[in-house]
Amino acid sequence: MIDRGYIWRTTLVAVALLAVWMGLAVRLGYLHLGGNESLKERVRRMRTVEEKILVGRGRILDRNEQLLALDLPVQNICVDPVVVLSNGQAKAVSAQLSRVLGLPPGEVWDRVNRPGRRYEPVARLVREEIATQVERLRLPGVFFEPQTTRYYPHDSMGCHVMGFSNKEGVGSAGIEQRWDPYLKGRPGLRQSERDGRRHEIYTHRTLEIAPQEGADVYLTIDQNIQYFVEKALDAAMTNFHPEAAWAIVEEVRTGNILAMASRPAYDLNGYNKTAADTRLNRAVGVNFEPGSVFKVGVVAAALNEGLVATNDLFDCENGMWFFAGRPLKDFHPYGTLDVTGILRKSSNIGAAKIAVMLGPERLHRYLKSYGLGRPTGIEVPGEESGILNPAEKWAKVDITRIAMGHTVAVTALQMLNVLCCIGNDGFLMKNHLVRKVVDKNGAVLLENKPEALARPITERTAALMRQMLTEVTREGGTGTRASIKGYNVAGKTGTAEKIVDGHYVENANVSSFMGILPAERPEIGIIVVLDNPQPLRTGGVTAGPVFAKIAEPVARYLDIRPVDAAELVYYHKILEGTP
Question: Residues 47-64: what's their mean pLDDT?
């Protein structure tokens, strides 16, 4: 006999289930076919994804097309905690990621064990080879975000010129900053949809804008010359213990910068661990009183004006001279010196008397024509303009102090340009660190050519100055330690007392040497500046040897022909009989 109660209960359950299923069907039909637009829009927003298509930042290369900076592909490794936890594999996934990525297990577990979260980054900017190891594990809920990171293959080499690109891919110093509009390119854009497993539904792409890659920047810097300079500066920091040091190598005939370096330096791949002062490009970003290297501009001006001849004699007052009621001293006492001797011995008194002959207005005009008192326009940020006050604001005594490189301020690049002007037959050239910019299709977007800005002195004056400055590095001159076997070096030493709390300090100096070679027809100019070397302090015994340590390998590397006897005779012949 059939239990009527059982039939009744079964029928009731079946009707209830049918009602539930009918309700679900009605609800589902309503959701899909009804007018619930706000809910549909919410679903679309949840499924729609909009992402940038990353673009490679342009490369930076030296003049020989050696790579100095490039983008490397990396991956952000992320997890979907909802997927991982729902599979019950949270501990296993955490352990595997911790092992491969080399991260603390607790740190990874903290990222994975976040119920309700759909996105958690576990490791950022992971190298491709490590990301590949993770991918091979096929861990549920683990996915990857392709990224790029800036990489500098030579670490600290050229750091102050190169600058760096930050984590957001924005150039933040040096070439990277100044040329960021060319280097960064334009990212693309993609709009699409993803399924429940966060995989893109390719057939649902609604928009895709292709990216435009950044252009490559080719520098005038030569990686090998940069190495010679930096090696010499490192030795100088050890041997002479300066607070800082910087140097530049310039191509005399073009104004192109072949090397520019400062110490202390920093690793470009770890720039965020470095103090701002260490990142300062001192070669263009520091104003300093140059001292006696400044005398070359003063003597060249007087020679160009016909006020003095190379063999004119000056009384150097045995080391003490009063002008406008103020004393002026020489480092060593001298009696009578000719103009060549004033440069050879670096007499302050002799240079001051020549400056007085020029007068403030005329001297100021020449100093401006050398490019002093204004930025050179070199293609890196942070360049200082130097300090050159108008002649009408000079005190009466100032002209004698300016003659010896005090009460004015220059950058190392400005000072080197004055000497390279002498080396280039009187032509002052525009400086460049960038040779050209080329896009990914090979089109040249910009190319810098040699450009003469002015001609402050004549060819004859320049030749006479080179002849006199060659005596500085010969026996009896202040720069003998800057001499190089097989070459005539025309140069000048400088030792300036530093200003501390508004007063000159005798035992604190900025020491320098700048030179061009070969003196007969210069090809390269080099300046070395040491900030407060100790215990030796003068430019001739500190910066001079550093100059030689740079110039000798650079001359060999550039295959600059050593002078021979025939060339020496010819050089002196063309100057024979000149005053």
Answer: 77
